[in-house]
Design goal:
Elements: H1 5-13, H2 30-36, E1 39-44, E2 50-53, E3 56-60, E4 72-77, E5 83-87, E6 90-92, E7 94-97
Antiparallel strand pairs: 1-4, 2-3, 3-7, 4-5, 5-6
């Protein structure tokens, strides 16, 4: 294909540029690429300053006495698996901890076996 088709195709369809200026943009830096190629998910902050994402819990460092009631944050997961939590354009400090599982809680009134 490269030896027969492409030379014929280029001969038929190649056109000279109308201007000699180069309008290509510079290559983005690593930080810009990381910002573009990340997964973003909107989550809600709980009253205990906890954000849940992908079966993980993140405790956000308190910014005031009261949590922003039902405020949405943007959870960003980088290509390397790093997690950032953004609120109103700023990044918040957080720590990960084990989420309490509803299955691990004992029942209040266990049913006796018959």
């Amino acid at each position: 294909m490269e030896n027969t088709y492409l030379p014929e195709h280029n001969r038929r369809f190649a056109r000279a540029a109308s201007r000699s200026e180069d309008y290509h943009r510079r290559a983005p830096c690593k930080k810009e690429l990381d910002r573009v190629f990340r997964l973003e998910s909107v989550r809600m902050i709980g009253n205990d300053w906890v954000v849940r994402y992908d079966n993980r819990c993140f405790q956000i460092e308190r910014q005031s006495r009261h949590a922003p009631a039902r405020a949405d944050v943007l959870v960003c997961e980088g290509r390397d698996g790093s997690i950032a939590i953004e609120y109103r354009g700023g990044s918040w400090t957080r720590r990960r901890f084990r989420c309490p599982s509803s299955r691990s809680r004992p029942r209040k009134n266990p049913q006796p076996k018959k």
